[in-house]
UniProtKB/TrEMBL annotation:
UniProt name for this protein: Transport permease protein
Domain ABC transmembrane type-2: 20-245
Keywords annotated in UniProt: Antibiotic resistance, Cell membrane, Membrane, Transmembrane, Transmembrane helix, Transport
Family label: Belongs to the ABC-2 integral membrane protein family.
Organism: Lentzea pudingi
Transmembrane spans: 21-42, 54-75, 95-122, 134-158, 165-186, 221-242
Cell compartment(s), UniProt: Cell membrane; Membrane
Protein topology in the membrane: Multi-pass membrane protein
Amino acid sequence: MTASVTMIGRSIRLSRRNFDLVIMAIVLPVLMMALFVYVFGGAISTSVQSYVDYVVPGILVLCTGYGATSTAMSVTDDVQKGVVDRFRSMPISGFSVLTGHVVASVARNALATSAVVLVAVLMGFRPAATVGEWVLAMGLLLLYVLALSWLAAAFGVIARTVESASLLGFFMLFIPYLSSAFVPVATMPPWLRAVSEHQPITPVIETVRALLNGQPVTSGWLALAWSGGLLVVAFGWATWLFGRISRR
């Protein structure tokens, strides 16, 4: 635990020093939200709610992709610069090194999420959620962020360069566009609708959207199953990969 706390402090300090990365993690989701609300929002109909209320949950999930990409890059940077080799000579576990990167990712995502919600309110976002529903929505987002951050850490371990790590993170940014983040699934062609309905991001977005807008939750257990399962697999894969390079 002491080693993990130390590594968490190290990763957070690195994030503070790389301030431009933190700014981009906040600015890009906000710009995306402004683009969809003000440019495309007038042409997209969700039938039962304003478009800003519809799109905000999708943007919140999209934030996690930006944060996860930086996690993969940070892990790769440690591996390629020999920092991991230095840690191997110390009496600490590899788990603590990855934990530092993951917790720093969660902290960055929490900051980005707060900024997106604040700007969304200025744009007209009016959630109907109770305090309990807010807690449930944020809890689900936290679980999903943890899962995606551990997956990014695994990508960071296997990537050969920082540039390739950022390329692996591209897939995390692309998948939300094939979900119900920006348009209702019912408006998609049948083949694309099947892809959108059977991927992990759509249940997460639909559950967060239902909670924030005071609607019935129909995919909560599915969202928990996807996020929890992804977390278990990603955590096991990341620690196994890191253990392999630590034994070289």
